[in-house]
Model the fold of this input.
Amino acid sequence: MLQHANPVVETPAGTVRGIHDEAGEFYRAIPYAAAPAGASRFAPPVPHPGWSGVRDGTRPSPTAPQPARDFGRLDMIPYFGPGWVPGAEYLTVDVRTPAADGGRRPVMVFVHGGGFVTGSTRAALYDGRAFARDGVVLVTVNYRVGVPGFLDLAGAPANRGLLDVLAALSWVQATVAAFGGNPDNVTIFGQSAGATLTGALLATPEAKGLFRRTIVQSGSGTGAFTPEQARRVTAAAAVALGVEPTAEAFAAIPDERFLEILPALAGLDLRTSTATDPLAGLSPFSLVLASQPADALADGPAGDIDLLIGTNTEEGNLYVVPQGNLDSSTEADVHAIAARVYEDPATGVAARRAALSDATPGELRSAVLGEALFGAGTAHMAQAHARISGGRTHVYSFGYRSTALDGRLGAAHTVELPFVFDIADKPWLHRNTGLLGPDPAPADLAAHVHAAWVAFARTGNPGWAAYDPQRPVAQTLGY
Done:
């Protein structure tokens, strides 16, 4: 094939045409499941029927129905992408490969974040050129979010967004060899909600055999809703829509209405006699499970899977600094958020205060959020996996402090992503309102972090010692 010709790949579902660029080959908007329209929005994903002729894989996919997200002064468009780009066929993957040549390269499958309500493969932060450059086939996945993806409804399977990710992994097993990837060496990795989904796969029996390694970036092994919590969200959604809480009733409602009712679901009190709110009121959607993934690892493939897991040191800053709440927060604000996320709020706040002796109320508020949303559930998952996997667990802590928003954003949620994807030098990240702020990133940090992720995908070893539950020390990155 001539280097300047558009590459064409034969897949089991049909032929797809991509593009050549400096990193290799890029194929976009390849469907891994049939379009979820009408009643099928609340059904399990089914295989795509395939196509005749040559499918155009040079243009981006539609995206799942989703609302616009506002993070105050911080420009989060590179994270969320363009928002809702309507089109029925959005259960798609993008594939970056050095060459669709039959090689057996490591495969990495990325699952985006966005609070279970937003996000897509079109986000600029998920530029996979560096992975292809380094000999990896990168697959990025769209999945159902919001009401179609995660609202628990009678007559519909739970966790449809997770079922989509499972379907995408099955597609990878059947198809990625055509793109030069090795289906026997698949690493699934995700960030935020995507990390919670990938972590849940470790406890999912149906996931056995679909991947070999997992990376959980700022997710939670204890982030699922209980069935009782999910019922509260479902009841509120049904009331807002004026229909019964069933898949049959919801199937008749257009996606636009599902987005219009999201404000009515925001901030629901999900505390119960047995559970706190694992998402601190920041999202009305999560996985719905009878037990948390970190407590159910023996049910899935976890014992045979290599795991790289970690958090950023100031995760909660994303939910405090851009909104202007770092200075305006009071002790009452700290205790209000603690009441949502701790069984014993006073003890929880005291523990955070002891770790941050000179912290302002805004800093304490951030610390409580970061620990509740990501830190505690990550530590629980790391401990649980290390106990059953025999030295297959590696833990990191990412501490590079973004200088965005007058130097205050710090090592917030999402800040590690440009380093993982090795794009930390992009100019659009380095405005005062850009994710990394006006200062240049450390020259070697992106290369180091990205190389660790690639090494883990190749061998299961990111370059540091396995986690010891008896001496729980994390590898520090960026500080």
About this structure: Residues 431 and 438 are 5 Å apart (CA to CA).
